[in-house]
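Figure S7 source data.
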Amino acid sequence: MIDPVPGQVSAPAPVPAEAVAPLMRGIAVLRQLTEAGGTLSLSGLERATGLARSTVDRITATLARMGYVRLDGRDAVLTPRLMELGNAYLAALRLPALLDAHADALADELDESVSLAVGDRDGIRFIHQATRRRAMSLSFRIGDLLPAERTAPGPLFATEWTRADWHHWHERRTADPADLGFPAIPPRTEGTGAPDSDFEAYVERARADGWALDDQLIEPGLVAVSVPVRDPRTGRVACVASVVSHTSRRTATGLREELLPRLRSTVAAMEADLRADLREGPTAEARVPPSDLAAWTGASKQELGREFVESLARGLTVLTAFGESRAELTLTEVARATGLARATARRALITYEHLGYVEPTGRTFTLTPRVLSLGFPPLSRTSLPEIAAPHLAELADRVEESASLAILTPDSGTGTGTGREIQYTARAATRRIMSADITVGTRLPAHRTSMGRVLLADTPDGDFTEVRQQGYALVEEELEQGLRSIAVPVRDRTGRVVAAVDVAMHSTRRTAQQCVEEILPELHATATRIEGELRTAGRFTRVPLT
Ligand code: PHB
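Tokens for the predicted P-hydroxybenzoic acid complex:
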């Protein structure tokens, strides 16, 4: 271990001559939007990034065309589609696919939060959260970055730090004594955190014990115990699993005495799965290269418009070349996967390496955990109603009728389905006055509504066979005179129907036939958009249905 270097902060590395400036600006915009919680006005972006307004406009227009941002009046809003960048990192890493279920099962068993984190230079970054946290303490999100010295996983990662890592840590502590560079945690004040001089001892203890404790280093009340999960190939720490609690339920000592043994046996099972994966290799499905090239790549320059910054779009596409069984790629492989010219792919990789999103090892490149800072923390909490809302608004606008999203409430055990209800979870009303006074939260008998029939048709005892076959339900005047509604299902990644969307109108507005001819295609298009975002958002997180 090296001595602290007080007051010495190295200058940032110079920008390489070949770095792509528009890509750097686009990344800066995505970072600011992420730190702002997913939404920022265009003028707010101008202030936060220091970019000219015309540049902010072109960058946000490009991100909107790529489907990564939605422009909503004066605001730019991150969309769940952006999660495909973090998904590329998480898929390449393999750990979530292999370990998330273990973490979830432990959280269920203990009724406490369980998380997985990777080391990110002198910090830790969460790659999974099975949250059982009560309202009493902060809960972290996938992608949140915490300073190593204020967490339980931190000292376990620090047992493997190089001299350069320690040097970087000392510099960071000097430059940012209050931890302002870590927006996920409260700043240090008198009495929070521990003195820096304690950290090295804390690391040595973690090395000797093979576990570490966080006794309220982040905030009063928050306690955690952590155990490293080792990579079977190298023996190095692949990630760290933690059980997190609150002093109102357990002290740090109680956490260690009561829960550390179960955390350790879960980690042993995780390591066994990592060894098995090494023997068996990736599944056949995982070996297939990515097939869906970015949506904008087929469009002509004219279609994309003058505002479109192609070098930014190309650069971002490079991150999506990585994925499951595509963790380490050569320049040639990146170019082939993205359809970009080698020179273009090379300059993007140089830019990412400079910014810390990509790491070269010999001839290959890998993504770093920092890729999760592009949208993941706020987006990983997106619910299905939040995903659906802008799409419902667009649909309502286009057909000039009200559009809604609903789910089936849990089965109360009647079996036949006749006792079940739907619950409205999102709604976009038109200005047209409708007599039906429906708001989010409203419950209606499922079998008498179009959305209910679509939802029941997917249940084992649902008798709406025709609805299942035709893929929609049309209901006339069952609940209210003069009301007609048509609904289609919304399916998750596994094909299960998780919600329904409908358009409701006065029957005088359109015949049933017109409804099927004019509204149904729009409904299907809306459901497809919602399903696409749900699939991206749900790949490594559980998307709440309400
Ligand atoms: C968490 O998962 O929220 C967590 C983990 C380790 C800590 C603190 C919080 O030290």
